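A reminder from the course coordinator: this example appears on the midterm review sheet, so study it carefully.

Given structure:
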């Protein structure tokens, strides 16, 4: 067991908006190098949870710890410093600067923190190679495809390799091939750089994909992604109307008979496709 403090810890967190509860009594611990997949139907509180973890919202009750620091007592400047030092965030909304090149978008956070130019160039080159945009450094976002722009969002968030990543429906709006490429980036960041991750998704087939694969690096530095049987460092939380109604392993999630889980994994006819469970949409045995 790691002697390091948890990356993120929620203790009995509740928050309401206009007297309507958004989250109620949420507690969990995200360990170093671990991943928690958070799912549920729209409006269940998933995005609110991420914004609390980032310090963008303050809870009404409870405590949140980031790198063993309780964030309730931090002022805005201290919160900004903590986020910048420890976290990368990929939210649904595009955050790219349209008038800046791929390189400048990626370097922005490092420039804000006065990184030496040589260190910035090295970090940006490394992350753009990691996401496959090393040949596009001088392009503007409008010159990139949708999938490339999403990879640039990842580069901005991952540059400098933060210890914690927050993903809010990272593959939203992408076709299956681009979605799989993004999931592979998430796996590589998690396994090669031991980044702790909160991963929000309504696309339930992403959970077994993330749980059933591991990124490994060989002696020559080449990274490959292999299928594995069990990932002990991944868990699933299901939110329903702001409450955590299930916490367990991906296998336990898939096999659960809890009504709240079965509504997701075995939805009734007519349920939205994004809220339904598909074991592996990329399986070679499936026809297009």
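Designed residues:
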């Amino acid at each position: 067991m790691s002697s390091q403090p948890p990356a993120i810890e929620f203790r009995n967190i509740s928050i309401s908006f206009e007297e309507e509860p958004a989250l109620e009594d949420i507690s969990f611990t995200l360990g170093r190098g671990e991943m928690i997949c958070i799912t549920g139907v729209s409006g269940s509180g998933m995005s609110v949870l991420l914004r609390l973890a980032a310090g963008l919202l303050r809870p009404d009750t409870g405590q949140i710890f980031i790198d063993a620091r309780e964030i309730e007592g931090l002022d805005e400047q201290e919160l900004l410093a903590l986020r910048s030092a420890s976290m990368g965030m990929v939210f649904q909304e595009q955050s790219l600067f349209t008038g800046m090149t791929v390189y400048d978008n990626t370097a922005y956070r490092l420039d804000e923190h006065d990184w030496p130019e040589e260190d910035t160039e090295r970090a940006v080159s490394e992350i753009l190679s990691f996401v496959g945009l090393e040949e596009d450094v001088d392009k503007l976002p409008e010159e990139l495809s949708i999938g490339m722009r999403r990879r640039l969002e990842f580069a901005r968030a991952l540059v400098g390799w933060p210890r914690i990543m927050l993903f809010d429906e990272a593959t939203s709006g992408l076709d299956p091939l681009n979605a799989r490429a993004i999931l592979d980036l998430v796996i590589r960041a998690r396994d090669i750089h031991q980044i702790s991750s909160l991963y929000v998704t309504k696309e339930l087939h992403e959970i077994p994909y993330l749980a059933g694969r591991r990124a490994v690096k060989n002696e020559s530095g080449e990274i490959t992604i292999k299928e594995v049987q069990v990932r002990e460092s991944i868990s699933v939380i299901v939110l329903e109307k702001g409450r955590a109604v299930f916490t367990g392993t991906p296998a336990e999630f898939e096999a659960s008979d809890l009504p709240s889980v079965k509504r997701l994994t075995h939805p009734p006819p007519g349920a939205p496709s994004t809220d339904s469970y598909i074991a592996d949409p990329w399986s070679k045995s499936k026809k297009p």
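The chain is about 35% helix and 25% strand. Residues 281 and 288 are 9 Å apart (CA to CA).
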